[in-house]
Specification:
Shape: globular
Order of helices and strands: EEEEE
CATH class: Mainly Beta
CATH superfamily: Domain of unknown function (DUF427)
Number of strands: 5
Distance between the termini: 16 Å
Number of helices: 0
Structural class: mainly beta
Strand order of the largest sheet: 1-5-4-3-2
Amino acid sequence: MFYIPFEDIYFDLFEKTNTTSESPPKGTASYWRVHAVGSSADDFMWAYETPDTAARAIARHGTFDPQKARIDVEPAEDKRHTPHVTE
């Protein structure tokens, strides 16, 4: 899973839903529906907006349901963000 900073997500296509889930190490996740060209997908993205202390590196970062989205990634130098790698 890739956690993408909120400032890099185009929220004009998303609508927050009432869905939430709990993860003991992370806290409460909120979910978003995506709308595109006459169709939508519920709970397409989720994020821990105010995660517990152990997961604060992913605060205000979204990740996408791998059954509903395909993310292709190419490495690029990024001077704005510092990667958070767990050991």
